[in-house]
From TrEMBL:
PROSITE patterns: HIS_KIN. InterPro entries: HATPase_C_sf, HATPase_dom, His_kinase_dom, HisK_dim/P_dom, HisK_dim/P_sf, HssS/ArlS-like, Sig_transdc_His_kin-like_C, VanS-like. Keywords: ATP-binding, Cell membrane, Coiled coil, Kinase, Membrane, Nucleotide-binding, Phosphoprotein, Transferase, Transmembrane, Transmembrane helix, Two-component regulatory system. The gene is vanS. The lineage of its organism: Bacteria, Bacillati, Bacillota, Clostridia, Eubacteriales. It catalyses: ATP + protein L-histidine = ADP + protein N-phospho-L-histidine. This is histidine kinase. It is an enzyme of class 2 (transferase).
Length: 376
Protein backbone atom coordinates (compact mmCIF):
# COMPACT_ATOMS: atom_id res chain seq x y z
CA UNK A 1 0.00 0.00 0.00
CA UNK A 2 2.83 2.40 0.86
CA UNK A 3 4.53 1.91 -2.51
CA UNK A 4 1.23 2.49 -4.31
CA UNK A 5 0.50 5.60 -2.26
CA UNK A 6 3.98 7.04 -2.98
CA UNK A 7 3.48 6.33 -6.67
CA UNK A 8 0.26 8.33 -6.64
CA UNK A 9 1.87 11.19 -4.74
CA UNK A 10 4.81 11.34 -7.18
CA UNK A 11 2.70 11.10 -10.34
CA UNK A 12 4.41 13.38 -12.84
CA UNK A 13 1.98 12.49 -15.65
CA UNK A 14 0.25 15.87 -15.81
CA UNK A 15 3.53 17.76 -15.65
CA UNK A 16 5.11 15.62 -18.38
CA UNK A 17 1.98 15.92 -20.52
CA UNK A 18 2.04 19.69 -20.34
CA UNK A 19 5.76 19.88 -21.15
CA UNK A 20 5.25 17.48 -24.09
CA UNK A 21 2.33 19.56 -25.38
CA UNK A 22 4.39 22.74 -25.20
CA UNK A 23 7.28 21.08 -27.05
CA UNK A 24 4.86 19.80 -29.68
CA UNK A 25 3.54 23.30 -30.32
CA UNK A 26 7.07 24.65 -30.67
CA UNK A 27 7.95 21.85 -33.13
CA UNK A 28 4.85 22.57 -35.23
CA UNK A 29 5.70 26.25 -35.23
CA UNK A 30 9.25 25.44 -36.32
CA UNK A 31 7.97 23.21 -39.14
CA UNK A 32 5.72 25.98 -40.41
CA UNK A 33 8.64 28.41 -40.21
CA UNK A 34 10.83 26.02 -42.25
CA UNK A 35 8.16 25.70 -44.92
CA UNK A 36 7.72 29.44 -45.20
CA UNK A 37 11.46 30.11 -45.14
CA UNK A 38 12.11 27.68 -47.98
CA UNK A 39 9.56 29.41 -50.19
CA UNK A 40 10.83 32.82 -49.19
CA UNK A 41 14.44 31.95 -50.00
CA UNK A 42 13.34 30.56 -53.37
CA UNK A 43 11.17 33.57 -54.23
CA UNK A 44 11.71 37.32 -53.97
CA UNK A 45 14.34 36.90 -51.26
CA UNK A 46 16.48 34.91 -53.71
CA UNK A 47 16.20 37.65 -56.29
CA UNK A 48 17.18 40.25 -53.73
CA UNK A 49 20.25 38.23 -52.70
CA UNK A 50 21.35 38.02 -56.37
CA UNK A 51 20.75 41.75 -56.77
CA UNK A 52 22.76 42.48 -53.65
CA UNK A 53 25.73 40.42 -54.95
CA UNK A 54 25.66 42.27 -58.28
CA UNK A 55 25.47 45.67 -56.65
CA UNK A 56 27.87 45.14 -53.76
CA UNK A 57 30.58 43.04 -55.43
CA UNK A 58 30.15 44.10 -59.10
CA UNK A 59 29.37 40.53 -60.14
CA UNK A 60 27.72 39.76 -63.42
CA UNK A 61 24.10 38.76 -63.03
CA UNK A 62 24.90 35.24 -64.29
CA UNK A 63 27.79 34.92 -61.84
CA UNK A 64 25.67 36.19 -58.94
CA UNK A 65 22.96 33.67 -59.78
CA UNK A 66 25.52 30.87 -59.94
CA UNK A 67 26.94 31.85 -56.53
CA UNK A 68 23.42 31.98 -55.07
CA UNK A 69 22.72 28.56 -56.60
CA UNK A 70 25.91 26.97 -55.27
CA UNK A 71 26.06 28.56 -51.83
CA UNK A 72 22.44 29.00 -50.82
CA UNK A 73 19.94 27.16 -52.98
CA UNK A 74 21.88 23.89 -53.15
CA UNK A 75 22.45 23.98 -49.39
CA UNK A 76 19.10 25.34 -48.39
CA UNK A 77 18.20 22.22 -46.42
CA UNK A 78 21.38 22.45 -44.34
CA UNK A 79 20.95 26.20 -43.82
CA UNK A 80 17.37 25.75 -42.74
CA UNK A 81 18.35 22.90 -40.44
CA UNK A 82 21.03 25.00 -38.71
CA UNK A 83 18.77 28.03 -38.41
CA UNK A 84 15.84 26.04 -37.07
CA UNK A 85 18.10 24.10 -34.71
CA UNK A 86 19.48 27.33 -33.23
CA UNK A 87 15.96 28.73 -33.08
CA UNK A 88 14.62 25.63 -31.31
CA UNK A 89 17.48 25.57 -28.82
CA UNK A 90 16.97 29.22 -27.92
CA UNK A 91 13.20 28.86 -27.65
CA UNK A 92 13.37 25.60 -25.70
CA UNK A 93 15.90 27.00 -23.28
CA UNK A 94 13.87 30.16 -22.78
CA UNK A 95 10.59 28.35 -22.22
CA UNK A 96 12.14 25.63 -20.09
CA UNK A 97 13.62 28.21 -17.74
CA UNK A 98 10.30 30.05 -17.65
CA UNK A 99 8.22 26.93 -16.98
CA UNK A 100 10.39 25.44 -14.29
CA UNK A 101 11.11 28.71 -12.50
CA UNK A 102 7.35 29.24 -12.46
CA UNK A 103 6.86 25.84 -10.84
CA UNK A 104 9.67 26.48 -8.36
CA UNK A 105 8.08 29.81 -7.47
CA UNK A 106 4.76 28.08 -6.85
CA UNK A 107 6.35 25.45 -4.65
CA UNK A 108 8.35 28.09 -2.77
CA UNK A 109 5.19 30.14 -2.19
CA UNK A 110 3.43 26.99 -0.98
CA UNK A 111 6.27 26.26 1.45
CA UNK A 112 6.03 29.82 2.80
CA UNK A 113 2.35 29.24 3.55
CA UNK A 114 3.22 26.28 5.80
CA UNK A 115 3.95 28.65 8.67
CA UNK A 116 0.94 30.89 8.13
CA UNK A 117 -1.86 30.89 10.69
CA UNK A 118 -4.51 29.87 8.19
CA UNK A 119 -6.73 26.87 7.56
CA UNK A 120 -6.83 27.61 3.82
CA UNK A 121 -5.63 24.80 1.59
CA UNK A 122 -2.44 25.43 -0.40
CA UNK A 123 -3.12 25.23 -4.13
CA UNK A 124 -0.66 24.76 -7.00
CA UNK A 125 -0.96 24.22 -10.73
CA UNK A 126 -2.95 21.11 -11.72
CA UNK A 127 0.19 19.40 -13.03
CA UNK A 128 1.76 19.81 -9.56
CA UNK A 129 -1.13 18.15 -7.73
CA UNK A 130 1.18 15.47 -6.27
CA UNK A 131 3.35 18.21 -4.73
CA UNK A 132 0.24 20.07 -3.57
CA UNK A 133 -0.94 16.96 -1.72
CA UNK A 134 2.44 16.56 -0.03
CA UNK A 135 2.64 20.19 1.06
CA UNK A 136 -0.91 20.12 2.44
CA UNK A 137 -0.17 16.90 4.28
CA UNK A 138 2.91 18.50 5.84
CA UNK A 139 0.82 21.56 6.75
CA UNK A 140 -1.81 19.38 8.43
CA UNK A 141 0.84 17.44 10.35
CA UNK A 142 2.51 20.66 11.50
CA UNK A 143 -0.82 22.06 12.64
CA UNK A 144 -1.61 18.86 14.56
CA UNK A 145 1.82 18.83 16.20
CA UNK A 146 1.54 22.50 17.11
CA UNK A 147 -1.92 22.00 18.57
CA UNK A 148 -0.78 18.94 20.52
CA UNK A 149 2.26 20.82 21.85
CA UNK A 150 0.11 23.78 22.91
CA UNK A 151 -2.40 21.49 24.60
CA UNK A 152 0.37 19.59 26.39
CA UNK A 153 1.97 22.85 27.51
CA UNK A 154 -1.37 24.16 28.73
CA UNK A 155 -2.08 20.93 30.65
CA UNK A 156 1.40 21.11 32.15
CA UNK A 157 0.94 24.73 33.21
CA UNK A 158 -2.46 23.94 34.70
CA UNK A 159 -0.96 20.99 36.52
CA UNK A 160 1.82 23.12 38.01
CA UNK A 161 -0.80 25.58 39.26
CA UNK A 162 -2.85 22.74 40.71
CA UNK A 163 0.14 21.18 42.43
CA UNK A 164 1.30 24.52 43.78
CA UNK A 165 -2.15 25.03 45.26
CA UNK A 166 -2.20 21.49 46.66
CA UNK A 167 1.26 21.92 48.19
CA UNK A 168 0.16 25.05 49.99
CA UNK A 169 -2.71 23.22 51.73
CA UNK A 170 -0.71 20.49 53.54
CA UNK A 171 2.14 22.92 54.18
CA UNK A 172 -0.27 25.29 55.95
CA UNK A 173 -1.55 22.38 58.04
CA UNK A 174 1.98 21.26 58.96
CA UNK A 175 2.96 24.77 60.03
CA UNK A 176 -0.30 25.22 61.96
CA UNK A 177 -0.07 21.98 63.97
CA UNK A 178 3.67 22.43 64.64
CA UNK A 179 2.93 25.94 65.91
CA UNK A 180 0.30 24.54 68.29
CA UNK A 181 2.76 21.94 69.57
CA UNK A 182 5.44 24.58 69.99
CA UNK A 183 3.14 26.98 71.84
CA UNK A 184 1.76 24.32 74.22
CA UNK A 185 4.64 22.12 75.43
CA UNK A 186 2.47 20.80 78.29
CA UNK A 187 -0.29 19.68 75.91
CA UNK A 188 -1.92 16.35 76.96
CA UNK A 189 -0.19 13.37 75.40
CA UNK A 190 -3.35 12.12 73.67
CA UNK A 191 -3.92 15.48 71.99
CA UNK A 192 -0.24 15.83 71.17
CA UNK A 193 -0.23 12.38 69.56
CA UNK A 194 -3.26 13.36 67.48
CA UNK A 195 -1.59 16.56 66.26
CA UNK A 196 1.67 14.73 65.47
CA UNK A 197 -0.28 12.10 63.51
CA UNK A 198 -2.11 14.73 61.46
CA UNK A 199 1.16 16.62 60.86
CA UNK A 200 2.90 13.46 59.70
CA UNK A 201 0.03 12.62 57.34
CA UNK A 202 0.18 16.11 55.80
CA UNK A 203 3.98 15.91 55.55
CA UNK A 204 3.69 12.63 53.61
CA UNK A 205 1.19 14.26 51.25
CA UNK A 206 3.56 17.20 50.83
CA UNK A 207 6.39 14.80 50.00
CA UNK A 208 4.21 13.08 47.41
CA UNK A 209 3.39 16.35 45.68
CA UNK A 210 7.03 17.45 45.66
CA UNK A 211 7.98 14.09 44.12
CA UNK A 212 5.43 14.75 41.39
CA UNK A 213 7.17 18.01 40.54
CA UNK A 214 10.43 16.11 40.12
CA UNK A 215 8.59 13.47 38.11
CA UNK A 216 7.52 16.07 35.56
CA UNK A 217 11.13 17.19 35.07
CA UNK A 218 12.52 13.65 34.90
CA UNK A 219 9.94 12.57 32.36
CA UNK A 220 10.78 15.45 30.02
CA UNK A 221 14.55 14.98 30.25
CA UNK A 222 15.25 11.28 30.62
CA UNK A 223 16.15 8.91 27.85
CA UNK A 224 14.99 5.37 28.52
CA UNK A 225 17.92 2.94 28.68
CA UNK A 226 17.00 -0.71 29.18
CA UNK A 227 18.96 -3.23 31.25
CA UNK A 228 17.27 -6.46 30.25
CA UNK A 229 17.28 -9.62 32.34
CA UNK A 230 15.14 -12.70 32.90
CA UNK A 231 12.10 -11.86 35.06
CA UNK A 232 9.88 -14.19 37.07
CA UNK A 233 6.55 -12.54 36.33
CA UNK A 234 4.56 -14.24 39.09
CA UNK A 235 7.06 -13.21 41.76
CA UNK A 236 7.17 -9.59 40.52
CA UNK A 237 3.39 -9.14 40.35
CA UNK A 238 2.72 -10.93 43.65
CA UNK A 239 5.30 -8.81 45.45
CA UNK A 240 3.76 -5.67 43.96
CA UNK A 241 0.27 -6.68 45.08
CA UNK A 242 1.57 -7.17 48.64
CA UNK A 243 3.14 -3.70 48.62
CA UNK A 244 -0.24 -2.14 47.83
CA UNK A 245 -1.95 -3.85 50.76
CA UNK A 246 -2.11 -0.61 52.86
CA UNK A 247 -3.92 1.15 49.99
CA UNK A 248 -6.36 -1.73 49.51
CA UNK A 249 -7.39 -2.31 53.13
CA UNK A 250 -9.31 0.94 53.90
CA UNK A 251 -11.87 0.25 51.15
CA UNK A 252 -11.67 -3.54 51.48
CA UNK A 253 -10.31 -4.04 47.99
CA UNK A 254 -8.29 -7.07 46.93
CA UNK A 255 -5.78 -7.97 44.23
CA UNK A 256 -5.89 -11.43 42.66
CA UNK A 257 -2.76 -12.54 40.74
CA UNK A 258 -3.28 -15.37 38.23
CA UNK A 259 0.06 -16.06 36.56
CA UNK A 260 1.66 -19.42 35.68
CA UNK A 261 4.60 -20.31 37.95
CA UNK A 262 7.03 -20.84 35.07
CA UNK A 263 6.13 -17.76 33.05
CA UNK A 264 9.23 -15.63 32.49
CA UNK A 265 9.87 -12.42 30.62
CA UNK A 266 13.02 -10.76 29.23
CA UNK A 267 13.06 -7.05 30.04
CA UNK A 268 14.20 -4.30 32.37
CA UNK A 269 12.82 -5.41 35.75
CA UNK A 270 12.89 -1.98 37.40
CA UNK A 271 11.19 -0.20 34.54
CA UNK A 272 8.57 -2.89 33.93
CA UNK A 273 7.84 -2.89 37.66
CA UNK A 274 7.15 0.81 37.28
CA UNK A 275 4.76 0.09 34.40
CA UNK A 276 2.80 -2.48 36.39
CA UNK A 277 2.94 -0.26 39.50
CA UNK A 278 1.42 2.68 37.61
CA UNK A 279 -1.35 0.55 36.09
CA UNK A 280 -2.19 -1.11 39.41
CA UNK A 281 -2.19 2.21 41.23
CA UNK A 282 -4.61 3.57 38.63
CA UNK A 283 -6.84 0.47 38.96
CA UNK A 284 -6.95 0.81 42.75
CA UNK A 285 -7.74 4.52 42.60
CA UNK A 286 -10.71 4.10 40.26
CA UNK A 287 -12.20 0.75 41.34
CA UNK A 288 -15.30 0.26 43.46
CA UNK A 289 -15.12 -0.49 47.18
CA UNK A 290 -15.16 -4.20 48.13
CA UNK A 291 -14.08 -5.13 44.57
CA UNK A 292 -11.33 -7.41 43.28
CA UNK A 293 -8.62 -6.30 40.88
CA UNK A 294 -7.54 -9.21 38.69
CA UNK A 295 -4.00 -9.47 37.31
CA UNK A 296 -3.39 -12.25 34.80
CA UNK A 297 -0.68 -13.19 32.34
CA UNK A 298 -0.27 -15.76 29.59
CA UNK A 299 2.00 -16.76 26.76
CA UNK A 300 0.63 -16.10 23.27
CA UNK A 301 2.82 -17.03 20.31
CA UNK A 302 6.09 -15.14 20.92
CA UNK A 303 4.52 -12.56 23.23
CA UNK A 304 3.54 -12.31 26.87
CA UNK A 305 0.13 -10.76 27.56
CA UNK A 306 -0.45 -9.15 30.98
CA UNK A 307 -3.90 -7.78 31.86
CA UNK A 308 -5.13 -5.68 34.79
CA UNK A 309 -8.92 -5.73 35.22
CA UNK A 310 -10.87 -3.70 37.75
CA UNK A 311 -14.54 -2.96 38.37
CA UNK A 312 -15.35 0.73 38.42
CA UNK A 313 -17.01 3.55 36.55
CA UNK A 314 -16.32 3.13 32.82
CA UNK A 315 -13.84 5.44 31.14
CA UNK A 316 -15.64 7.60 28.55
CA UNK A 317 -14.82 6.65 24.98
CA UNK A 318 -13.38 10.07 24.13
CA UNK A 319 -10.98 9.82 27.09
CA UNK A 320 -9.69 6.39 26.07
CA UNK A 321 -7.85 8.05 23.16
CA UNK A 322 -5.97 10.50 25.43
CA UNK A 323 -5.45 8.45 28.58
CA UNK A 324 -1.79 7.77 27.74
CA UNK A 325 -0.94 11.42 27.04
CA UNK A 326 1.41 13.36 29.27
CA UNK A 327 -0.21 15.29 32.11
CA UNK A 328 -3.62 13.76 31.39
CA UNK A 329 -5.75 13.02 34.44
CA UNK A 330 -8.98 11.06 34.49
CA UNK A 331 -9.92 12.76 37.74
CA UNK A 332 -10.97 16.19 36.52
CA UNK A 333 -11.93 17.15 40.07
CA UNK A 334 -8.31 16.56 41.16
CA UNK A 335 -9.15 14.44 44.16
CA UNK A 336 -6.44 14.77 46.78
CA UNK A 337 -6.37 11.02 47.32
CA UNK A 338 -6.28 9.92 43.68
CA UNK A 339 -4.97 12.94 41.81
CA UNK A 340 -1.43 12.57 40.49
CA UNK A 341 0.79 14.35 38.04
CA UNK A 342 -0.93 12.60 35.16
CA UNK A 343 2.36 11.00 34.13
CA UNK A 344 1.91 7.41 35.30
CA UNK A 345 0.28 5.95 32.21
CA UNK A 346 2.31 8.14 29.84
CA UNK A 347 5.53 6.86 31.40
CA UNK A 348 4.17 3.30 31.26
CA UNK A 349 3.59 3.65 27.53
CA UNK A 350 7.11 5.03 26.97
CA UNK A 351 8.67 2.09 28.79
CA UNK A 352 6.51 -0.52 27.03
CA UNK A 353 7.29 1.05 23.64
CA UNK A 354 11.01 0.92 24.47
CA UNK A 355 10.53 -2.85 24.98
CA UNK A 356 8.93 -3.07 21.49
CA UNK A 357 5.59 -3.79 23.13
CA UNK A 358 2.15 -2.20 23.24
CA UNK A 359 -0.22 -1.02 25.96
CA UNK A 360 -3.95 -0.51 25.50
CA UNK A 361 -7.13 -0.05 27.50
CA UNK A 362 -10.75 -1.14 27.11
CA UNK A 363 -13.61 0.01 29.30
CA UNK A 364 -17.32 -0.79 29.57
CA UNK A 365 -20.06 -0.72 32.17
CA UNK A 366 -18.75 -3.90 33.81
CA UNK A 367 -14.99 -3.40 34.03
CA UNK A 368 -11.88 -1.65 32.75
CA UNK A 369 -8.95 -3.68 31.41
CA UNK A 370 -5.39 -2.52 30.72
CA UNK A 371 -3.45 -4.90 28.46
CA UNK A 372 0.34 -4.96 28.13
CA UNK A 373 1.81 -7.01 25.28
CA UNK A 374 5.56 -7.63 25.44
CA UNK A 375 7.96 -9.81 23.43
CA UNK A 376 8.92 -12.87 25.47
Amino acid sequence: MKIKRDKIRNDYTKLKSKVFFQMFLITVAAAVAVYLLRHILRGHIGDRIVGYLVKAFQFKNSDAQEIYQLVIRNNIEMILFVVILIFLLVILFRFSVFWFTKYFDEISAGMDKLTEESNAKITLSPELDFMENKINQIKNNLEKQKKAALNAEQRKNDLVVYLAHDIKTPLTSVIGYLSLLDEAPDMPLKQKAKYVGVTLEKAYRLEQLINEFFEITRFNLQTIVLNKEKINLLFMLQQMADEFYPMLTPQEKQVSVNVPDDLTLCGDADKLARVFNNILKNAIAYSYENSIINISAKQQDKNTIITFTNQGNPIPKEKLETIFEKFYRLDSARSTNTGGAGLGLAIAQEIVTAHNGTISVESNSENTTFTVKLPS
